Amino acid sequence: MKPNSRLECASCQHLSSSHFNSLDSDGLSEINSNKVCLSFKKGQTIYHEGMRVNGIYCIHKGIAKLSKLGPKGKEQILQFATPGEIAGYRSMLANEPMIGSLVAHTELTACFIPKEVFVKQVKNSPNFSFELLSASCHELGEWGKVISNMTQKSVKERLSEMLLLLETTFGVDEKGCIDITLTREEMANMVGTATESLIRLLKELKKEEIIETSGKQIKILDHSELKLSADLMY
Question: What is the pLDDT of residues 53-69, one digit of tens each?
Answer without folding.
Answer: 999 999 999 999 998 88
